[in-house]
Specification:
The chain is α/β, with parallel strands linked by helices. Helix content is 47%, strand content 9%.
Length: 278
């Protein structure tokens, strides 16, 4: 068997907690060398790449900051105050509601890779103010992590090649919750020749469509890698067979591009009947 340097393995999941859990489980099952496996969220991966190559932001390495949720909300709040007029008395509750709505709008717009010029009137004004404030204060938000990273890897193939040499084996959990740009970044790192990628996902468990998640990425993956080995994980260790039968009956009404024929099987007894509470 070929020996693989654990530092050349990249495991990606969606939350920092899950990433840390993967790292700890690897240590338990494999031993101390597993600590060298790189476990990231998509945003952690992109942030590392941007810190390695800050020129793409036109910032120096030590001279850009992350606009977290509170900073984003404050910028939008200031934009809303500007719309209302700083000299006017503002109802705090109305300002809070307006800020929340505009913040959700900007997040959704950036998720869909829209620009301020794609909108009109107040929406355009708030979105433009937000982008200008990020640039003026050398800030990047979580959406910029992805767009700047994709731009970097597309424009500079040599940089993509360096990460291809570093991350030779890629594993991605919860693939149904990846967005188009998530998948694009992985393909840019992986290159057109390598097939050293493993994904885990279920199109019927996608819950982050509002964040740009595209469960059809699983079908796209199978199109990109038609010879990929497919393993159906239909063994359940938590629920009774009665619960699984009820769940499968409901989920069978969810039509997807990928059909699953294997029934869910429980390791536990059949269990009590399902009760409907009205």
């Amino acid at each position: 068997m070929e020996l693989i340097n654990p530092a050349n393995i990249l495991a990606i999941t969606f939350t920092k907690k899950a990433s840390e859990e993967i790292r700890e489980r690897l240590k338990q099952f494999v031993g101390p060398r597993a600590a060298q496996v790189v476990t990231f969220t998509f945003h952690q991966l992109c942030l590392k790449i941007l810190r390695d190559n800050p020129f793409i932001l036109n910032f120096s390495q030590d001279n850009f900051k992350i606009a977290d949720s509170s900073v984003q909300a404050q910028i939008i709040k200031n934009a809303c105050k500007n719309l209302i007029g700083n000299n006017k008395k503002v109802n705090p509750n109305a300002l809070r509601i307006m800020t929340s709505k505009m913040l959700n709008f900007v997040k959704r717009a950036k998720t869909l890779f829209k620009k301020p010029d794609d909108f009109q009137n107040d929406l355009r004004t708030v979105f433009q103010f937000y982008q200008d404030q990020l640039k003026e204060h050398r800030l990047i938000d979580f959406f910029d992590f992805l767009t700047f990273t994709e731009n970097l890897l597309k424009r500079y193939p040599r940089i993509a090649y360096e990460y291809r040499k570093l991350y030779q084996y890629i594993l991605i959990d919860e693939f149904q919750d990846t967005s188009a740009i998530n998948f694009q970044i992985i393909k840019l790192i992986l290159g057109s020749q390598s097939k050293r990628i493993t994904i885990v996902g279920d199109v019927r468990q996608s819950i982050y469509g509002f964040r740009g998640a595209n469960p059809n990425n699983i079908g796209t993956f199978l199109s990109c890698y038609p010879n990929a080995n497919r393993v159906v994980l239909n063994q359940n260790y938590r629920s009774t067979q009665t619960i699984l039968n009820a769940a499968q009956s409901l989920i069978s009404n969810c039509k997807t591009d990928i059909e699953f024929s294997s029934p869910l099987i429980s390791k536990r007894p059949k269990g009590d009947l399902v009760k409907i509470i009205k």
